[in-house]
């Protein structure tokens, strides 16, 4: 049962990342208001595929915050509704993970309670999604929606990692105190970079909506200083991570899991910078926006996992041994 929890928990983490990617697709395609109501879509459980399925005054009927909605677009409607369906699926996955966590109630009850908290937060995230629609894509709410997704991911990573406390092999690491500080600095700076990225994203949303999602090659020029700060900050992020990864490789065995995850982190950092550069110089291709968002979220997850692995004995195993002494 415990092994089932671990395996399904990993699947759930992957599924949450899928939802983050799909959320990026919703934003990049301008489909955020494809469904003007929630939880139904145009008052239906199965969204319309043609304007002929809607009443002639549908813009007035489904107005948001007193404003008439845009013209019906079947593609945007189904993109947004698909996002909602995947959200429901994630809720089911997290609930199953919670049910499987019952096997840890005696061994490590915190795993059980944190699994329940994850399920609760996913439900809260669903409600927050309804607020996004009700506020007509208010930027602050969208950003909060994104940050909560990262909190859920990190909570799941922590809980699933904790479940390995009886079988995890602690690896030898030299210079651990300095590596801890450097990794936490990288994690903090990456969160700051994501915060700046959300400001850039919000500016792009406003510009794209004002231009009816046309003239994409002019969007970057209209953003202003925030974009250039975000772009320049990526060089600092790259430099610090290169130093971190160099030290990790130097102070851990070549075949260690830490070394392998350090390689993954380096690959993600490079991919994140490349996707950002492509958006900056090639008129923000739609495919790059959700990829950029996904990779940034993956970086946070890998950084957090590395921090847990480096301190596994202190964070998890000491607690477990104390509880079973």
Which tags fit this structure?
325 residues, flat, 2 domains, mainly alpha
What does this structure look like?
Mean pLDDT is 87; it is low at 321-325. Helix 4 packs antiparallel against helix 5, helix 6 runs antiparallel to helix 8 and helix 6 packs antiparallel against helix 10. The chain has 2 domains: 1-163, no CATH class; 177-325, no CATH class. The protein has helices at residues 2-28, 58-61, 74-100, 109-134, 139-162, 176-210, 219-223, 225-251, 257-281, 288-310, 312-323. It is mainly alpha-helical and 325 residues long.
Largest β sheet strand count, sense and barrel closure: none
Task: Report how far apart the termini are.
Answer: 23 Å
Integer count of domains: 2
Which series of helices and strands comes N to C? HHHHHHHHHHH
Shape: flat
Beta fraction: under 5%
Which structural class do the helices and strands define?
mainly alpha
- Return Rg in Å: 22 Å
Q: Kindly report the average pLDDT value.
A: 87
Number of strands: 0
* Low-pLDDT segments: 321-325
Number of helices: 11
* Helical proportion, percent range: over 70%
Gist of the model:
The chain contains eleven helices and no strands. By secondary structure, it is mainly α. Helix 8 (225-251) runs antiparallel to helix 9.
Topology (elements, then pairings):
Blueprint: H1 2-28, H2 58-61, H3 74-100, H4 109-134, H5 139-162, H6 176-210, H7 219-223, H8 225-251, H9 257-281, H10 288-310, H11 312-323
Helix pairs in contact: 1-3, 1-5, 1-10, 3-4, 4-5, 5-10, 6-8, 6-10, 8-9, 9-10
